[in-house]
C-alpha cells in the first residue's frame, strides 16, 4: 500500500469517464502504477454539492493511495433563482428534516420532472444503476482491486452510501459516512448476515445542524447490535467535513486494505 504524503505536481484528473462528461469525475493517484490494484472510493456528495466535492478533497486524504470516483446527484438545486449544486432526492434527506413527503407537499412540476428523468421506475433504482455503471467504466479504465471498493459519502451522500452498501454488501468492502444517517424507506438489515462482512466508518461532527449526534449514535448502535463492525468517532466541529476527518478516513481505509479479508 502506497502511503506517502508530500507535495506533488499538478493533480491528474480524468473528468467525465462516462458518456456525459458533466456527471462524474475521477481522481487518479499521483504516479499511478498500472500494475498495482488500487482501492476505489465511490464519492457521494452532500446536498448542494456536486461530483467534484469529494474529488477535490482527495489530496487532503492521500495523493497516492486510492482511485476516486465522484458522482453527481440527479436533482439540480437552485437558490435565489441561481444553480446551487445537486441533491440525491427526498428519500435521502434526514428523517427529522423531511420524514416523508405527503402528496399535498409535492410540487407537480417536480413529479413531471421525475417521470421525464426516470420514467415510472423507482428513482433509487436509476441511481443504483448509474453508480454500478460508473464503477464498471472506472474499472475498465484503471486498475482497481475488485474486493476493495468503498462507498464514501457526506450527509445525504452518506445516506445513499448506507443504502447501497447495506443492500449490496457482497459488492463493497465498506461504507464511510461523514455526518450521515441511515435513510428511511428500506430495510437496512434485510441482508444482515451478509452485511456482517461489511465494514463501516461513521464520523460525526458534534454540532452539525443537519445531522444530530444523538441520531448518528442510534444508527451506529443499530448496526453494532446486528453484528456489523462499526468504527465511530465524534469531532468538536460543526463542519460536515474536516482535515482531521479525512486523515482518519485514510488511516481506517489503510487498516481495512491491509487486513486479511474475510
From TrEMBL:
InterPro entries: AB_hydrolase_fold, Plant_Biomass_Hydrol_Est, PLipase/COase/thioEstase. SUPFAM superfamilies: alpha/beta-Hydrolases. Keywords: Signal. It comes from Tautonia plasticadhaerens. One of its GO terms (molecular function) is hydrolase activity. Residues 1-22 are annotated as: Disordered. The keyword RNA-binding does not apply. This is Phospholipase/Carboxylesterase. Residues 135-251 form the Phospholipase/carboxylesterase/thioesterase domain. Gene3D superfamilies: alpha/beta hydrolase.
Amino acid at each position: 500500500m502506497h502511503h506517502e504524503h508530500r507535495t506533488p505536481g499538478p493533480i491528474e484528473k480524468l473528468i467525465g469517464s462516462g458518456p456525459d462528461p458533466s456527471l462524474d469525475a475521477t481522481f487518479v493517484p499521483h504516479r499511478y502504477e498500472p500494475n498495482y490494484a488500487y482501492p476505489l472510493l465511490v464519492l457521494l456528495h452532500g446536498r448542494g454539492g456536486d461530483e467534484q466535492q469529494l474529488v477535490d478533497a482527495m489530496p487532503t486524504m492521500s495523493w497516492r493511495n486510492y482511485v476516486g470516483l465522484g458522482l453527481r446527484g440527479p436533482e439540480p438545486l437552485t437558490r435565489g433563482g441561481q444553480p446551487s449544486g445537486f441533491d440525491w432526492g427526498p428519500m435521502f434527506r434526514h428523517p427529522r428534516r423531511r420524514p416523508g413527503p405527503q402528496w399535498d407537499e409535492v410540487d407537480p412540476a417536480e413529479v413531471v420532472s421525475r417521470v421525464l428523468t426516470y420514467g415510472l421506475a423507482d428513482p433509487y433504482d436509476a441511481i443504483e444503476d448509474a453508480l454500478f455503471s460508473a464503477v464498471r467504466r472506472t474499472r475498465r479504465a484503471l486498475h482497481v482491486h475488485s474486493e476493495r471498493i468503498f462507498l464514501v459519502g457526506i450527509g445525504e451522500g452518506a445516506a445513499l452510501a448506507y443504502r447501497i452498501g447495506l443492500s449490496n454488501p457482497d459488492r463493497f468492502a465498506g461504507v464511510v459516512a461523514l455526518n450521515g444517517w441511515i435513510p428511511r424507506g428500506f430495510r437496512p438489515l434485510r441482508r444482515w448476515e451478509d452485511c456482517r462482512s461489511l465494514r463501516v466508518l461513521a464520523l460525526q461532527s458534534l454540532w452539525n445542524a443537519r445531522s444530530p449526534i444523538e441520531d448518528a449514535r442510534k444508527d451506529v448502535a443499530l448496526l453494532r447490535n446486528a453484528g456489523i463492525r462499526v468504527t465511530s468517532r465524534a469531532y468538536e466541529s460543526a463542519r460536515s467535513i474536516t482535515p482531521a476527518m479525512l486523515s482518519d478516513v485514510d488511516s481506517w481505509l489503510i487498516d481495512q486494505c491491509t487486513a486479511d479479508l474475510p
